[in-house]
Amino acid sequence: MNTNRLLIGLVIALVIAFLLSSFVYKQFQKASIVKPSTSQPIVVAAVPLQLGTRLDASNVRVIQWPAGQQMAGMFSRVEDVANRAIITPLAENEPVLEAKLSPKEAGAGLSSTIPEGMRALSVAVNEVVGVAGFVIPGTNVDVLVTGRVSSGTRGAGDNITRTILENVKVLAAGQKIEQDREGKPQTVAVITLLVSPDDATKLTMASTQGRIQLALRNTIDTKKNDPPAVLEASLFSGEGAITKPTKTSGKKAVVRPSAPPYVIEVITGNKRENKSFPTSTANPTEH
User: Fold this and answer.
1) Which residues of 60-96 are buried (b: 16+ CB within 10 A; e: fewer)?
2) pLDDT by residue (tens digit) across 5-50?
3) Which of 79, 109, 139 is the C-terminal boundary of a domain?
4) I need a labelling partner for 144 at 20 to 30 A (CA). Which of 44, 94, 109, 127 fits?
């Protein structure tokens, strides 16, 4: 009887051991199976990069990126972005995308940041024209010009100020194409603006034949106002200090001069006396 019990216990132990060994074996098999990769390579900036920087192996690198989060225009090899310039600043580890790169043959520096069909034009400025140094790369300005009205036109010989360009992007201040990280003003002698070919001719004429002034505007304010031109005479004529006559129906009131008084000789007994009587004043008439 005891022998049977021992045999039954031994069989049960063997079965349990077999089941446990099978479970451990299956777990090792699952652990040894290589899971498919869930990431992909992507090219990013290795260090902070300024606008116009030419890319190479020293300033970009490849990192792993989640496979399910692809971005349009991403690159997986450094060779695909080598010798191309960026048209926007990049932070460290920021992905390098096609939309952030200049054309392959555009070169580097400021020229690579100019969109096709546009021009970069520099104008001389001082601290006043440059809005106390706050006209820096990346800001937007309006361009005003003051000059003399040419002969043969209305207001000839008078000075006039008009806005010739609105919402123009500043590409560079001096030779800097990056604005100060803290937004500090930069006193420079030259400002470079991004303009169309037609606007380039206007700006050139204004800067050589007149006096230009830049008006700084909020970068999110892109609305064009087209303000009217201002003549010097309208500012300094002094009309505002003179009381203007009350307007009538368009006819001028004319007051006739008063007639001389009537003189009558009055005789009282042997006394004679001259008395004057005023003539009735005529009411003003209109012509």
Assistant:
1) beeeebeeeeeeeebbeebeebeebbbbebbeeeebb
2) 777 777 787 778 778 888 877 777 776 665 556 889 999 999 999 8
3) 109
4) 109
Structural domain includes residue 267: yes
| pLDDT tens sequence across 124-178 | 998 888 888 888 888 999 999 999 887 766 667 789 999 999 999 999 888 877 7
Whether 90 is in a domain gets the answer yes
Domain that holds residue 89: 41-109
Which of the listed residues 87, 109, 131 is the one where a domain comes to its end?
109
Is residue 201 domain-shared with residue 123, that is, in the same domain?
yes
Distance, in Å, from the CA atom of 285 to the CA atom of 178, rounded to the nearest integer, reads 74
Q: Which residues contact 84 (CB under 8 A, 6 or more apart)?
A: 54, 55, 101, 102, 104, 106
Considering the domain architecture, whether residues 121 and 227 belong to the same structural domain is answered as yes
Q: Is residue 245 part of a domain?
A: no
The DSSP H or E segment spanning 287 is none
